[in-house]
């Protein structure tokens, strides 16, 4: 069939481009770098000993604070080296000036001032040349909090250790109950996994759908379209472009998927990412299914827009409502997440503009009834067929129209005439 010849031409034309090869290679590299490099840097970033002066205006906290900062380096030595600097209220300015000089010369990393009212106001001040080391400052803050709270409790005649044991938080482990089965569930992991996949769905459907539109506008401006239509039907040309570009997109993401298996295996083996993501083969299967359905539906609409417009600028204006429908599914994930089997989520997952992403999200969070999944897929297939018929009518006339972009009334006339 001529349709498949057009699809083959579109597919080979795209996969042979340098941009496709570079994108296919750089995509996994960048993706791997974003996943692996931060973890490696965080895991292997060296920590050094920190010397710090403490000005304890309360004359009662230094010893306890020094004991609370018991962090050690990889060789077992103490991470913090503290020095007690006595001072009175009148001497504070002079002491601060001397200590600031030591910080500037590199003799110490910084100094901490504990005011007399630290028990009431709960505020201390750290002075240092580098104040961006979040982990080190967090250790200092935790040690000081522990010291202050223990002293407050001691004043009231209470034991810090016993109070801490009694205030230990209770963690609730969630278990999702299904038909004849139970499985451990984690909202944070489920949300992150769903969000990653719906973002991939959103980007792939949008990028490759727009690619169909740009391909039509490019050939229309080059007048190649007139030569092609002399030997094949407009519908075969439009459908061939959709199939060919879609196959190129699947090829790229299949290559990325192979690479992701290796990256994902490494990331999960480190234990750093297994607590954040979790998915199985059913997730992958539904992802592919709804990607194909979503791409076919939206690329058909983009093909109709490309046939009407003469430039990318015109197309950007006309495609805004279509893109906004797709973007809507990224705006409301929390509403669906909170009540995946509610009326709002159920109705939206049946609307073809939203179904590819929202139904996939519902499946990933809480498996809906089989009839709802089947109905959503049937509605999508029917919508693809109807959109294809309408787009083909617009394509048949609009593909040979040049000059001023037609308005809505004229496009409706094209549909009736076709």
Keywords:
68% helix, two-stranded antiparallel ribbon, single chain, 7% strand, 418 residues, alpha/beta, elongated
Could you please describe the fold and organization of this structure?
The chain is an alpha/beta fold and 418 residues long. The chain folds into 2 domains: 2-35 and 186-417, no CATH class; 51-166, Periplasmic binding protein-like II (D-Maltodextrin-Binding Protein, domain 2), CATH 3.40.190. It contains 17 helices and 6 strands. It has helices spanning 2-15, 18-44, 62-68, 92-105, 118-121, 134-155, 160-166, 187-221, 224-229, 234-270, 281-308, 312-331, 333-338, 343-348, 355-365, 370-398, 408-417; strands at residues 50-56, 80-84, 110-114, 125-128, 174-178, 181-185. A 4-stranded mixed beta sheet has the order 2-1-3-4, covered by helices on one side. A two-stranded antiparallel ribbon has the order 5-6. A hairpin with a 2-residue loop joins strand 5 (174-178) and strand 6 (181-185). Helix 1 (2-15) packs across helix 10 (234-270), helix 8 runs antiparallel to helix 15 and helix 11 (281-308) packs parallel to helix 16 (370-398). The longest helix is centred in the middle third of the chain and has 37 residues, at 234-270. The radius of gyration is 31 Å and the shape is elongated. 27% of the residues are buried.
């Amino acid at each position: 069939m001529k349709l498949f010849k057009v699809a083959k031409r579109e597919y080979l034309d795209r996969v042979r481009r340098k941009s496709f090869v570079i994108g296919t290679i750089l995509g996994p590299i960048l993706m791997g770098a974003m996943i692996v490099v931060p973890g490696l840097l965080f895991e292997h970033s060296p920590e050094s000993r920190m010397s710090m002066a403490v000005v304890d205006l309360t004359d009662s906290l230094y010893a306890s604070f020094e004991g609370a900062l018991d962090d050690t380096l990889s060789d077992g030595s103490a991470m913090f080296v503290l020095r007690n600097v006595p001072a009175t209220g009148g001497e504070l300015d002079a002491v601060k000036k001397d200590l600031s000089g030591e910080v500037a010369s590199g003799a110490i990393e910084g100094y901490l001032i504990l005011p007399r009212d630290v028990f009431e106001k709960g505020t201390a001040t750290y002075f240092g040349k580098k104040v961006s080391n979040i982990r080190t400052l967090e250790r200092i803050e935790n040690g000081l909090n522990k010291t202050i709270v223990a002293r407050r409790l001691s004043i009231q005649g209470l034991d810090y250790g016993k109070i801490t044991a009694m205030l230990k938080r209770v963690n609730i482990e969630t278990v999702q109950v299904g038909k004849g089965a139970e499985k451990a569930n984690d909202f944070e992991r489920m949300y992150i996994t769903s969000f990653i996949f719906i973002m991939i769905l959103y980007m792939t459907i949008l990028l490759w759908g727009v690619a169909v539109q740009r391909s039509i506008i490019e050939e229309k401006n080059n007048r190649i379209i007139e030569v092609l239509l002399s030997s094949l039907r407009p519908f075969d040309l439009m459908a061939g472009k959709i199939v060919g570009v879609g196959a190129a997109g699947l090829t790229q993401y299949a290559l990325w998927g192979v690479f992701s298996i290796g990256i994902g295996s490494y990331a999960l083996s480190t234990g750093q990412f297994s607590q954040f993501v979790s998915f199985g083969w059913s997730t992958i299967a539904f992802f592919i299914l709804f990607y194909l359905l979503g791409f076919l539906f939206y690329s058909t609409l983009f093909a109709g827009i490309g046939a009407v417009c003469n430039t990318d600028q015109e197309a950007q204006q006309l495609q805004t409502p279509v893109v906004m429908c797709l973007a809507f599914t990224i705006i409301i994930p929390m509403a669906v997440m909170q009540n995946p089997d509610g009326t709002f989520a159920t109705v939206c997952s049946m609307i073809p503009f939203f179904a590819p992403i929202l139904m996939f999200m519902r499946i990933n969070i809480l498996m809906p009834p089989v009839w709802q999944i089947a109905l959503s897929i049937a509605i999508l297939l029917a919508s693809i067929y109807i959109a294809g018929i309408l787009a083909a009518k617009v394509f048949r006339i609009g593909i040979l129209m040049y000059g001023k972009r037609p308005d809505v009334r004229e496009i409706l006339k094209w549909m009736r005439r076709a």
